[in-house]
């Protein structure tokens, strides 16, 4: 496959101001007729991208022509003038489209997915984000099978035809790139609502699902209305069309898609009721509904010039949805969750063979670049700008960005320039964050100068990443405070900006002993190496007034204990301090349950592994279980009380009740780890009596790693109760794939042959195969069979759905982090995959990059 480079960007030779599409829809066969008004921008032939398309007919200015050729799938025409009308006709087979890109069938529905390059699987077109067109779409289908016909924009006509067919015509007045095109046909039920914008326009809102799912769309609709109001209030952005529709589909490659006026969602991010969705599912729905809605401005009104600019829309939109979610619930807890996710996915990516800058330089397959780096690190860059300039100036910057680039295809540079001008800040050095991969490491150490001034010595370095051996310093904003150890008082908080490789900063005068609180709120996406003694961390765990920093201090104690335990079998004083810190939080009535639950959670096994030179999965697991048992036993009474608190109250969806449920789940896991006598019975009791999925599933999760008889009882009951609901069955597969039992590989192999398992559905494949890949203990268990199984599944899936297959590769790409035998066995599987004939471009690129 060939490599596409950012430096090779050229403006389009031809543009397409207007396009009319005519779909004659059917699952087995769909005919697409396209009419493109093309305008020349440069002396070159017209190249219309195509992927797997065969032209049935081609016309230029109304005349049939044979003067075309196919070049690597694209339709090439030499046209004489500067403006022509080009018409093409192709036939598609949605039913056999297992890639789920382009037009495909899901359940009884027909739907599209075009980002990034799926539109070329529907019709011949300059399928690049800098070609913006006005679309007119006519959909024709059998009325009984496909009573609902949706596309972007406004409905401008509909009616019946002969032979039981009907049609609908949609017109989208906003010019858009082809990746935002969407069409849906199916037997769908609507939840309808409306929203009145700040300027008084009424928008008709519709969420479309199968009829039986309609009752489970209330939370998504509520989230949509809150998002619309939030974007008006916080960013001054109003919705622009008369209609906003969302359709939920079962088979979808990722979370959702922001098509103009017609978002298409994975059912997972729409459907919820208390009996089937956990609180974190509810949160995920609110966040993704908001994210796709926010794209209407950050992505659709202002789109990307080319795919190297992907983070322009994704990083910014993640930052926006994080702000929305923070405002909905507890900002501190939300920040902790976001940082946990960053460390779980983006940090390892940035430290491994797939590391790439937020604005990449090259790719083979753009689908492989919808990564945690583009999304989550991209959001952290925006957050740093926000931190540097403050909310007011940030808003002036974002206003200017939207004003300047409305209707355009922009670049990351355009965003930075708009921020510089609008927020009055010099971001010259900050631009390096966009081009440099790798997570900076910051060493921080305080020293006392004679006159009582405390100074902070900082040093930054970024490890080499593939293709980037030498790194420059980046500007790192560090929210920093000192505490007086004797009184517990905070002495000062300041925003320290580390711009050079090294710097020393005076923090102020402090008479007595101090504790250093740094990178508060996780103000920069870095790895902090602060030379702090256990008792200093313990102090911060008890006294820091920044909840995130307090959480970090507790996690720091836990990590220290775990790393020591793995290294030497001993855990020094850090384990005792961690035990005490958790106890103190449990006893502190001022802390809310959600925060305590987050802070009491142990670092994940893979995050512990990330701290070590050579990852030892079993030793890590044992150390973690050992610390878990200690924390469990030390606070048995408190855990029991937290597990029971409010258990008999009926379900409520309030922040307090959510926090209580979260802590209940954590408490139950600690009770099981402590081998409290009745823990398994207690878990089964919670499982059986729960009137909601959060409590039921936290009980099941706690039991699934145990040998207790209650485990099978719960697993069986769960399947019987929820077997008819695909999303809940995904949980059943996933929880077993994540189990810490030694027979997990066997279980997963058996489940892969279960009649309810299929690789064709991405949610199901991710639950079982993705869940297994993320299970460090099980994947690396015997250093061979797990890798082979994972590689086999990836290869099988690649034949159906390359995009989803390629996303399962990263766990194997971490081979360098493991001991020799494991590394060799993992590499052998990567090599076997690479040798397999007929690999997709997606999988080839991921495997190829993972090998060296
Ligand atoms: N923009 C889409 C992602 C498309 C992924 C294509 N491989 C969803 C989102 O980020 O909102
Ligand atoms: Zn997005």
UniProtKB/TrEMBL annotation:
InterPro entries noted in UniProt: Aminopeptidase_N-like_N, Aminopeptidase_N-like_N_sf, PepN_Ig-like_sf, Peptidase_M1, Peptidase_M1_dom, Peptidase_M1_pepN, Peptidase_M1_pepN_C, Peptidase_M1_pepN_C_sf
Pfam families for this protein: DUF3458 (PF11940), DUF3458_C (PF17432), Peptidase_M1 (PF01433), Peptidase_M1_N (PF17900)
Keyword vocabulary terms for this entry: Aminopeptidase, Hydrolase, Metal-binding, Metalloprotease, Protease, Zinc
Domain (Peptidase M1 alanyl aminopeptidase C-terminal) ranges: 535-851
UniProt name for this protein: Aminopeptidase N
Gene3D superfamilies listed in its UniProt record: 2.60.40.1840, 3.30.2010.30, Neutral Protease Domain 2, Peptidase M1, alanyl aminopeptidase, C-terminal domain, tricorn interacting facor f3 domain
Species classification: Bacteria, Pseudomonadati, Pseudomonadota, Alphaproteobacteria, Sphingomonadales
Family: Belongs to the peptidase M1 family.
Superkingdom per UniProt: Bacteria
CDD domains found in the cross-reference section: M1_APN (cd09600)
GO molecular function, one term: alanyl aminopeptidase activity
Location of the Aminopeptidase N-like N-terminal domain: 84-180
EC numbers: 3.4.11.2
Cofactor dependency: Zn(2+)
Residues annotated as domain Peptidase M1 membrane alanine aminopeptidase: 220-432
Keyword Lipid metabolism (UniProt): no
Species assigned in the record: Sphingomonas jejuensis
Top-level enzyme category: hydrolase
Chain ranges of the Peptidase M1 alanyl aminopeptidase Ig-like fold domain: 438-529
